[in-house]
Amino acid sequence: MTEPPARRHGTRRPRRGRPRPDLPRRVAFDLLRAVAERDAYANLALPALLRDHGLAGRDAAFTTELAYGTLRGRGTYDAVLAACVDRPLDRVDAPVLDVLRLGAHQLLAMRVPGHAAVAATVELARAVVGESRGSFVNAVLRRVGGRSLDDWLGEVAPPLDADPLGHLAVSHSHPRWVVSALRDALGGDLAATAELLAADNRAPAVTLVARPGRAGLPELLAAGARPGAWSPYAAVLEGGDPAGVPAVRDGRAGVQDEGSQLVALALAAAPLTGRDERWLDLCAGPGGKASLLAAVAAGRGARLLAAEVAPHRARLVRQAAGPGADVVVADGRTPPWAPGAFDRVLLDAPCTGLGALRRRPEARWRRAPGDVPALTRLQRDLLGTALRSVRPGGLVAYVTCSPHLAETRAVVSDALRAHAGVTREDARPLLPGVPDLGDGPDVQLWPHRHGTDAMFLSLLRRNPD
Ligand SMILES: C[S@@+](CC[C@H](N)C(=O)[O-])C[C@H]1O[C@@H](n2cnc3c(N)ncnc32)[C@H](O)[C@@H]1O
Fold first, then answer.
1. Tens digit of each residue's pLDDT (9 = 90 or more) over 117-169
2. What are the CA-CA distances from residue 438 to residues 93, 213, 348, 435 (Å)?
3. For 408, which of 240, 273, 376, 456 could close a Cys bridge (C-beta 3.0–4.6 Å)?
4. Ligand 1 centroid – CA 328 distance (Å)
């Protein structure tokens, strides 16, 4: 994201009266508070805030970088701030700490000149947390700005050889337990883990999908996108608003990560003998994969049933997939259909989302290791349903947007032990042309290798009678 000239977003102190911080910093602060106080999703709350305050173009880009960068970098900035504040950070008022984090991000990671970053952030502090706190913020930020990020990391991050997880957690701003889970999923490879963590800190480009039979790739390319790397239906929008693309506006195309496209297409491409008419998406909301599968199914004389437990998310599936899919509100653990009713089943299971951290700046701080056991229980139950829902010879794709081994390989291995007559197949040939898919039989995509979310795919076949 390009930083506009500092003058535009530096300090310009009003001559008298209440301090008036500049709008981008004020809006970024409001977003941080909304995330902390109301559990707001930054990617949903920020566009509304920008709109309400009339921020567009470079101002919107600056505000987004301020807010998202601060949310992503919180782990690193807190380690630096802890060295600059004379009490534990949990004894600093939360709004003051958010102002400090905003200041630290400008000083350590943006190209805002130090004096402008400090002055403008102090102005913000005076307006939102009070005059007296302004002096505290000023003193702390002057210490933060006294060194570069690299110098700070040399001081506050544990040494790599003594504590590799601690080092990566602080220097790449991820919770330690997440670093640990990602390292395990990468087979213990610390260099690859560092690359992945760095990729999580880069905002992904917007990827579109041209839903087959409804929109063509040339239409998206004509709207200024370039072809995706792997999926024949993917186009990457370098800038601009996807809603400005006509095919997206009328639902013939959508926004969808290329990894999500690849795993859905893999299920559709897997060889199947006999009937191939009834497809199921067991956890369909909000409908990205269901829309793609429904479009592919329609072209092959098949029909998709999309199930979703949350009624509002089922409505989103109806909107996204249009008349091409049947949608049912159902708990996948107690399905309303007969066993063996389907030929192909997608289970895109609810998960920690650790594979999509680059998309959701605050998500890494929201999840906790304690979330994993309940999710893996649900994943096992849903995979049981998926395997019972498919006919002999039929296929189940088990998919997560998390590479956490407890949610991926462990769930599949348990299902194979619990359900007789199921075979795990090599999924790699179903992603033709995609390199670095590992030893198989499952597929694990990675942001730092494939430029996609870290989607996991395991392909299971119910043995023919
Ligand atoms: C990972 S998301 C699916 C994303 C979707 N496939 C897409 O591409 O847009 C998982 C979905 O499962 C739904 N879900 C959670 N528990 C469920 C259950 N017991 N039965 C059916 N759906 C469930 C969640 O509400 C959520 O919408």
1. 999 999 999 999 999 999 999 999 999 999 999 999 999 999 999 999 999 99
2. 47, 33, 21, 9
3. 456
4. 12
Could you identify the atom of ligand 1 that is nearest to the CA of residue 307?
Answer: 21
pLDDT of 48 higher than 70: yes
* DSSP annotation of 293: H
**283 belongs to the catalytic site:** no
Q: Whose CA is nearest to atom 10 of ligand 1?
A: 350
Residue type, 131: E
Is the pTM higher than 0.90?
yes
Pocket test for ligand 1, best of 256, 283, 329, 401 (most atoms within 8 A of CB): 283
Sign of the four-CA dihedral 305, 310, 313, 315: positive
Question: Of ligand 1's atoms, which has the minimum distance to the CA of residue 287?
Answer: 9
Task: State the number of CA atoms in the 13 A half-sphere of 48 facing the CB.
Answer: 9
Q: What is the pLDDT of residues 238-297, one digit of tens each?
A: 887 898 999 999 999 999 999 999 999 999 999 999 999 999 999 999 999 999 999 999
Per-residue pLDDT, 220: 96
Backbone angles phi, psi at 94, to 5 degrees: -55, -45
381 lines ligand 1 (CB under 6 A): no
Query: Do you know the residue count of the chain?
Result: 465
Q: What is the DSSP string of 324-368?
A: GEEEEE--TTS-SS-TT-EEEEEEE-----GGGTTT-TTHHHH--
The mean pLDDT of 50-74, rounded to a whole number, is 96
